[in-house]
Amino acid sequence: VIVGVARETASGERRVALTPETCKKLVAAGASVRIQPGIGDGAHFPDQAYADAGAELREDALAEADAVLCVQPPANPVLAGLKPGAVLVGSLQPQADEGRAAAIRERGLLAFPLERLPRTTRAQAMDVLSSQAGMAGYKAVLIAAQLAPRFFPMLTTAAGTIRPSKVLIVGAGVAGLQAIATAKRLGAQVEGFDVRPETREQIESLGGKFLDLGVSAAGEGGYARALTDEERAEQQRRLAEHLKNVDVIVCTAAVPGRPAPKIISAAMVAGMKPGSVIVDLAAETGGNCELTEPGQTIDRGRVIVAGPLNLASMGAQHASEMYARNVYNFVALLLKEGALAFDWDDELLAKTVWPERGK
Ligand code: NAD
Question: Where is the Alanine dehydrogenase/pyridine nucleotide transhydrogenase NAD(H)-binding domain (predicted)?
Fold first, then answer.
């Protein structure tokens, strides 16, 4: 089997779906690995490391590939030129782009968008949503610390005492919990809240305080459900009062398949202390804060609101290491003695493949 990896072309994408480590593993499993030169440049993996791991470097790495690995999908014309029936593994979001969906269908590609993986225990080692959310939560807090005109930790100095910043993390999923741990390490006073009640214990185990807004909305599959109008109003009322005393908010709340819930209103922001900072990691899906502009940092002299995109790419080396291991673990399900084989009784394949089987 020929496994091909091309340079990522999405704007600002520094991550790569194959590292020298996973390249070596694929070669050991009997694959021929072909890569375009420079695939690892953005994440600081040099070409030579891939060559040492057994990869063949060539500009036409995808031309005869039986399996193509990517972070973000290749451009549609590239997809349309892949070997018919080739396997495609990555964060593909086929429904997000009609041209992409058409290229996958028309070329008869066997696409495995990893964001479709069922979130079972067995799938954890392949779960790119989790591995990348961890980096995003970490970087979001560092951005907040960087933008804040204040210290995070408490300081006792000859120039007086500085009180620690109060950091509130909205949403305590994978990204939110990493954000809590990171803010805590920087010495802030950290609080978090979520609508899933089991997060109380998780937040507290990281040294954070659970902010109880009186709303509990656990949904299916361990995810949150959208709030009713009454629940939302209750959450908003309690939150508005609380935010007057918060220095930094990091937003991470999401509901699968829906735009990010709007939790922080413009009026709440207006009630915050001047010099407060909001970093909205949910910007990608519209943001948890009404004022968020995706990709922008707005500083109108009072509260700074940042909506950074693709935070995982900012930590491209470790994010790629984790992403590439996720991809390798998935591809290993498809490799039998150096050839591709598909066990459609395995739910990890059957539930992930797109278009769905039979459609
Ligand atoms: P996510 O990115 O979909 O959402 C982030 C958080 O936002 C969630 O915790 C959610 O409850 C919260 N949220 C949604 N609406 C909210 C609101 N109005 N107010 C406050 N918070 C709100 O979630 P995620 O990080 O991908 O993970 C969510 C769940 O999935 C967790 O229980 C996690 O443990 C579980 N999970 C399981 C596996 C696995 O077993 N393989 C892997 C990853 C995650």
Answer: 145-307
